[in-house]
Amino acid sequence: MPFQPLSDNDPDKLQPGDLGLLIIRLITVAIFSYYQLGSQLSHAIDHVWDNGEWDLISQLTEKNLPFPGILALGAIAILTISLLGVLLGIFTRLNALVLTLLSGFILLAPIVLSATLNPQALALYVGLFAALALGGGGRLSLDHALANRRERRRKPL
Fold first, then answer.
1. What is the Cα 147 distance to its own chain's centre?
2. What's the rounded Cα separation, in Å, for the pair 95 and 87?
3. Do 99 and 88 meet the contact criterion of CB atoms below 8 Å apart?
4. Low-confidence ranges of the chain (pLDDT < 70)
């Protein structure tokens, strides 16, 4: 008996893979935010409001990168915005690509964001964000909802 793929009778029907993508997005963003981004956000707020010391700026200065203060604040802002975009599923592929590039830079530079971030965890983040960049957010994302809304507007009644 030859292999016959199952036909997809209803392409708009929710599939288990869509729920899996939602869970992957939620867990990845929650873990990255809690373990890596949380401490950096508090250091960034202390640096901006109280002119406190921030280890990330000294690490970027050691790497001879230009404008380390602005670069550190910009990187944390971009990480926060991109993580929020992946969480909500809006511009998922673009946000995941940005997170892939930033995580890859952190891995290759090497920059220490937190004590719990080791190269193996960074490689895992790079892989997860790259997979989301290639595959998208699935049907349980704002991207899919907005695309369906746009498609319904185009169809004549």
1. 21
2. 10
3. no
4. 1-12, 155-157
